[in-house]
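--- STAGE predict ---
source: upstream dedup step, 1 unique chain passed
mode: sequence only
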Amino acid sequence: QVQLVESGGGLVQAGGSLRLSCAASGRTFSGNTMGWFRQAPGKEREFVAAISWGGRSTYYADSVKGRFTISRDNAKNTVYLQMNSLKPEDTAVYYCAASNSVAVTATRGNYYYWGQGTQVTVSS
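--- STAGE serialize ---
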């Protein structure tokens, strides 16, 4: 059974940092683009960041550029999202996903495996 399991969410004050992890099991995703999305209450799920299979290409939403960093360790089948300078508007459930596209993509439809999500709450 293929699973993506996120961890590392929690409650943090504005300006603080969190590091999210996404551990994959059941198959390797070392050849896939991986991404992070988020969904705030009452809003659509939105793209946050993506990383190519080898880690050399990354892509970020404008809202997180310069504050978030996506990385991966293919030996551990794990993807990370380092979040710095957090803002209250970053509050959301964060989801890890695996893409069926070779290209680094922000398009939800290109992601076919999803984790269950981890809550991030940023207080002001």
